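Quick note —
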Amino acid sequence: MAKKRLSEATKKRVKAGRMLLSGKSCAEAALAVGVARQTVYTWKKLLDEGGIDAL
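Predicted structure written out below.
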């Protein structure tokens, strides 16, 4: 079975999502992946609604 390759943007979303799930703040996740804090808040909403697969 071929492994699905994730885009760089998807990798950032998933990394930030995992950080949020481990208790990090949106600000910490944003700094770690290099995006605006508001972007992580948007991702957090998706995460809260649909889990890591939603990212």
